Amino acid sequence: MRAAVVRDFNADLAIETVEDPACPDTGVVLEVAACGICRSDHHGWTGKHPKIENGSILGHEYCGTVVEAGPKATHKVGDRLIAPFILGCGTCPACRTGVSNTCADQIVPGFGWPGAYAQYVGVPFDHNLVALPDGIAPALAAGLGCRVTTAWHALTDRAAVQAGEWVAVHGTGGIGLAVLLLAKMLGARVVVVDIVAEKLTHATAHGADAVVNAAEVDAAAAIRDITGGGAQVSIEALGIAATTNASVECLATLGRHVHVGMPSGDGMMQVNMRAIYTKQLAFYGTRGMPSWKYPTLLDMIERGQVDIAPMVARTVSLSGASAELRAMDGPTPPGTAVITDFNR
């Protein structure tokens, strides 16, 4: 099969012919219909993720059709499926209690397991995979990726956002844009923070109640002013110290910070603990979403309760993935890219 392979960090992915994936006993092989290009992939491409090495195949935001099923698989050939990026084992205490996104034995394609920047991907633990509704196109499904699902879990499970609350979102990449769209659906008021004017204009066009350019003003102070004392919920969607502290500092007393952005490198940063202590804030981490929550979200999307079309800005070929990763070295335009052509 054709695959885009990491050979050198910060260099174009090598488009190579590699062996087709072996079918896991507990899973399936999917013919990949679409795969999102995520900032988490950029962390790996630059050498800042410990599980990415020479020969790795990135790609954890994928959907496709089953072409081979293992003897212990729960799906069959021909099924059209979407996968959460975290594949829980299904048998540990975390999986048995509904929090498979915290499974200690999880597998994440693209990070230590061959990913979906390829024509085919082997998926173990296929009980995690969910039927993709006919009304959702593959490119849009891959655009859900870890962005929309993680944002939905952050808002509904971790932050328990209520209608009328102010939600601040720091960084309007894929996660930030998803938070905006979903929080508005939940009836929240949303203030968006970025340093790229084009992204702020885009956010306004898609329902943001207010925007803040952090390159021009103190973002936390601006949000406290806009919201009349601070947001009830703040979502950090970049993974750096500056946005983490702005997120904490923009909150009202008893506010909830949810940390979504994946920190790069060793993950260490200095955080304003005095703000957390003084305002008695809740500080949540979140990563992914359990697969059992997928059908409800997919149903809402298919019925038009929320329009996530703005998530996908462009579709590219497999050979075009390198340019998308390289662009993440600096400010990027609104929306995300999805690989839909695996023959070029």
From TrEMBL:
<dbReference type="InterPro" id="IPR011032">
    <property type="entry name" value="GroES-like_sf"/>
</dbReference>
<keyword id="KW-0560">Oxidoreductase</keyword>
<dbReference type="InterPro" id="IPR036291">
    <property type="entry name" value="NAD(P)-bd_dom_sf"/>
</dbReference>
<keyword id="KW-0862">Zinc</keyword>
<dbReference type="InterPro" id="IPR013149">
    <property type="entry name" value="ADH-like_C"/>
</dbReference>
<dbReference type="InterPro" id="IPR002328">
    <property type="entry name" value="ADH_Zn_CS"/>
</dbReference>
<dbReference type="GO" id="GO:0008270">
    <property type="term" value="F:zinc ion binding"/>
</dbReference>
<keyword id="KW-0479">Metal-binding</keyword>
<dbReference type="InterPro" id="IPR013154">
    <property type="entry name" value="ADH-like_N"/>
</dbReference>
<dbReference type="GO" id="GO:0016616">
    <property type="term" value="F:oxidoreductase activity, acting on the CH-OH group of donors, NAD or NADP as acceptor"/>
</dbReference>
<dbReference type="InterPro" id="IPR050129">
    <property type="entry name" value="Zn_alcohol_dh"/>
</dbReference>
<dbReference type="InterPro" id="IPR020843">
    <property type="entry name" value="ER"/>
</dbReference>
<feature type="domain" description="Enoyl reductase (ER)">
    <location>
        <begin position="8"/>
        <end position="339"/>
    </location>
</feature>
<protein>
    <submittedName>
        <fullName>Alcohol dehydrogenase catalytic domain-containing protein</fullName>
    </submittedName>
</protein>
<dbReference type="Pfam" id="PF08240">
    <property type="entry name" value="ADH_N"/>
</dbReference>
<dbReference type="Pfam" id="PF00107">
    <property type="entry name" value="ADH_zinc_N"/>
</dbReference>
<comment type="similarity">
    <text>Belongs to the zinc-containing alcohol dehydrogenase family.</text>
</comment>
